[in-house]
UniProtKB/TrEMBL annotation:
UniProt name for this protein: Transglycosylase SLT domain-containing protein
Transglycosylase SLT domain residues: 100-170
Species of origin: Streptomyces peucetius
Pfam families reported in the protein's UniProt record: SLT
Superkingdom of the source species: Bacteria
Keyword Hydrolase assigned: no
InterPro entries linked: Lysozyme-like_dom_sf, Transglycosylase_SLT_dom_1
First and last residue of the signal peptide: 1-41
Keywords: Signal
Length: 175
């Protein structure tokens, strides 16, 4: 808010506040520009020293258990999203669900035996109807090497879609 006054003291105070505000904003912009992103962080070395909780205290804490997912479409999508996030593969629940429902109606054993891929001996399979060569090329480590495994199928298809279309969210028809 700007206040206009006729007094010399008020004008001087206004100028001082304006300059201070501009200087603070400029310093913040410089700090944001110079702050390293996680991608620019120095890699850890074997000489790194971890400071924190002593080993005795760590032993007393319960180990964190592996996250459990439901063995259904909702669980498969949620597990795939966690893997995708860890691997930097973009996509949302809605984008995956929409494409799965169009491609297989949520059936992990769905197989297309009529399209050109099937006619050439490589039928599309699984939740997102992936062919074996595409699955092999875009398989995400840490998932089974099984084309019809629901989570492996979703993550490989999302990885492929990210490479070709930017994200599975950008796919609105057969891909």
């Amino acid at each position: 808010m700007t206040a206009f006054t006729r007094s010399t003291t008020g004008t001087a105070r206004f100028r001082k506040l304006s300059f201070t505000g501009i200087a603070a904003a400029g310093a913040a912009a410089v700090a944001l520009t110079l702050a390293p992103s996680p991608a620019h962080a120095a890699p850890a070395t074997s000489a790194s020293v971890t400071v924190g909780v002593p080993a005795a205290e760590k032993a007393d804490k319960p180990k964190q258990s592996k996250k459990v997912y439901a063995d259904n479409l909702d669980g498969w999508i949620k597990e795939a999203l966690d893997i995708m996030k860890a691997e930097g593969i973009p996509g949302t629940y809605e984008g995956l669900h929409r494409n799965i429902m169009r491609e297989s109606s949520g059936n992990p054993d769905a197989q297309n035996n009529w399209d050109v891929n099937a006619q050439n001996g490589t039928p599309s399979k699984g939740l997102l109807q992936v062919i074996q060569p595409t699955f092999d090329a875009y398989h995400v480590e840490g998932t089974p090497r099984d084309l019809t495994d629901p989570v492996a199928n979703i993550t490989a298809a999302a990885n492929y879609a990210a490479d070709k279309y930017g994200s599975i969210d950008n796919v609105d028809s057969a891909y």
